Amino acid sequence: MPEQDPDREVARRGGRSSAAPRFDVVGIGNALVDVIAHAGEDFIRANELVKGSMTLVDTDRALQLYRALGGAVEMSGGSAANTMCGIASLGGRAAYVGKVSTDDLGAVFGHDLRAVGVQFRPGRPDPEVPTGRCIIVVTPDAQRTMNTYLGVSSLLATSDVDAVTVADGAVLYMEGYLFDRTEAKAAFRYAAGVAHEHGRRVALTLSDSFCVDRHRDDFRALVRDEVDILFGNEDELTALYEVDDLDAAIEAVRRDCALAVITTGPQGCLVVTPEAVTHEPAEPVERVLDTTGAGDLFAAGFLYGFTRDLPLTECARIGSIAAAEVISHVGPRPLVELRTLLAPERRPEPRGAAT
After folding, report:
1. Is the model's pLDDT at 3 over the cut of 70?
2. Which of 85-89, 227-231, 241-245, 351-355 has the least mean pLDDT?
3. Residues 28/30/31/36 CA torsion (nearest 10 deg)
4. Is the pLDDT of residue 17 over 70?
5. CB 112 within 8 A of CB 78
6. Taking Cα atoms as reference points, which of 105, 103, 53, 114 lies closest to residue 81?
7. What is the CATH topology of the domain spanning 8-29+79-99+156-346?
């Protein structure tokens, strides 16, 4: 059993016990498709790209670059979607709520999730706004130049949230990258309310310190009012509480949240509860090739263990195993079935699983 009473926060919030969950984790986030192409320096110059950067672009620019690339590899992405794919790869049951359009990339996104066993619940499409995409140009020196178009994914609103699916998840996992618009903030609050009403847990990943800086007050209110499990790194947590010292941020989050998991890069992570702060080391990696998706897959491993009532230290260990796999190759999703990396004792049935 986790060191923390799993029903403590639900009881505090007035949630009621519900039927056994159909899903271990239900994710909500930006539904994006990664469009990856190899090109030379001449392409960078001709299209006036800032090499090695990530730039947000509008519809016209996204479509112009998409056409200019010609041949490219298309695969679904997005932070919370990566986490749901990690849950499925570990042998868990996952669903995802995100907004795509009825275009080719929207079809790619849905297909890729379903292909790995993640149930996809798309919101209502908008015929005027294309599916979001991250256009990634890889030059011969292995530099990745990214131009991100959020598209219809950023327009997710309360009406796009499938309440039945949220109620069917043991944990609701929400992606901070999606938190920019007022409508998305309302959707987060609505989904969290549905989850707690049915006795479920609510998790949030802060995603990026720049996201936190833009919406600090709203993030802090959400954490205080609705979040049972908070994921973030050192920069994100100190930004959330406007402090320079991680210890001060930890003391603050212990007052707001029943459980916080703070990743500290190669040093591993800190598992924070009101009672204790525990350091867990990272899984050794022979060679780090790409850190993209490390936090996403860590959260997948942690939540996989959490929904199986494993001790919090073991949840962190599984998170480290999942993160180590994804940083050992290029790309934000596992290339092997993560369940094969776990010893049998780390693969119990989820709590309340139907037989």
Report:
1. no
2. 351-355
3. -140
4. no
5. no
6. 114
7. UDP-N-acetylmuramoyl-L-alanine:D-glutamate ligase (3.40.1190)
Within 13 Å of residue 206, how many CA atoms lie on the same side as its CB? 31
Asked whether 104 and 16 are in contact (CB, 8 A), the reply is no
Residue 139 confidence (pLDDT):
84
DSSP 26: E
Query: Residue range 334-345: average pLDDT?
Result: 88
- Region of 142 on the Ramachandran plot (φ > 0 left; ψ -120 to 50 alpha; else beta): left
Report the pLDDT value the prediction gives residue 1, as an integer from 0 to 100.
35
Cα-based distances in Å from 84 to 74, 120, 136: 18, 10, 22
Dihedrals φ, ψ of 77, to 5°? -140, -155
Q: Provide the CATH topology of domain 32-77+124-153.
A: Adenosine kinase, small domain (3.30.1110)
> Which pTM does this prediction carry?
0.87
Q: Compute the distance between CA of residue 355 and CA of residue 345 in angstroms, rounded to an integer.
A: 19
Say if residues 227 and 13 touch (Cβ distance below 8 Å): no
320-347 residues labelled b (16+ CB within 10 A) or e (exposed)? bbbbbbbbbeebbbbeeebeebbeeebe
Quote the radius of gyration of the chain (alpha carbons, Å). Answer: 19
Which residues sit opposite 261 in a β-bridge?
231, 271
Dump pLDDT digits (tens) for 145-176.
Answer: 889 899 999 999 999 999 999 999 999 999 99
Domain definitions of the chain by residue range? 8-29+79-99+156-346, 32-77+124-153
User: Has residue 12 got a pLDDT over 70?
Assistant: no
Nearest CA-CA partner of 173 in 256, 95, 235: 95
HEC sequence for 273-322: CCCCEEEECCCCCCCCCCCCCHHHHHHHHHHHHHCCCCCHHHHHHHHHHH
- Identical fold for domains 8-29+79-99+156-346 and 32-77+124-153, yes or no, is no
The pLDDT value recorded for residue 18 is 54
350: how many CB neighbours lie within 10 A of its CB?
Answer: 20
Helix (H) or strand (E) holding 209: helix 209-214
